Amino acid sequence: MPDTTRFRSSQDAVLPDDVTDPLLWRAAYDVAAAHQPDATGRCPSLLCAGRSAPCEPMVNARRAMRLARGGARRAGFRETTGRSGRDRRRAA
To answer: Which of 88, 35, 38, 40 lies closest to 60, judged by CA?
Structure first.
């Protein structure tokens, strides 16, 4: 039977003290590790097909890592749907 154990780089990463969502942080870390630019500044992932860095998955992974550390509260991010609060209340 083949060994199906997979190694993820987040297994060796030290979890920052302020992480509020370890699962999100570790998943985002693994995505970021897979999309590190090569020496030419391009993403080596087959998903990105050699796009220049930072690719969209890398940008999203960095954002998820910030959010997993409580970044939404610290940075003052708000949900933006393009509708005002009055419109949201009216729709409810």
So the answer is: 35
Least Cα distance to 58 among 92, 25, 35 occurs for 35
Q: Residues of the chain with pLDDT > 90: what percent?
A: 51
Residues 6+ apart with CB under 8 A from 43: 35, 37, 50, 51, 52, 53, 54, 55, 57, 58
Q: Which residues have C-beta within 8 Å of that of residue 40, sequence separation ≥ 6?
A: none
Q: Copy the structure tokens of residue 50.
A: 């050699």
Report cis status (omega within 30 of 0) of the bond before 2: no
What single-letter amino acid sits at 7? F
| CB-based contact 78:84 (threshold 8 Å) | no
28-47 per-position pLDDT tens digit: 999 999 999 999 999 999 99
- Over the chain, what is the mean pLDDT? 79
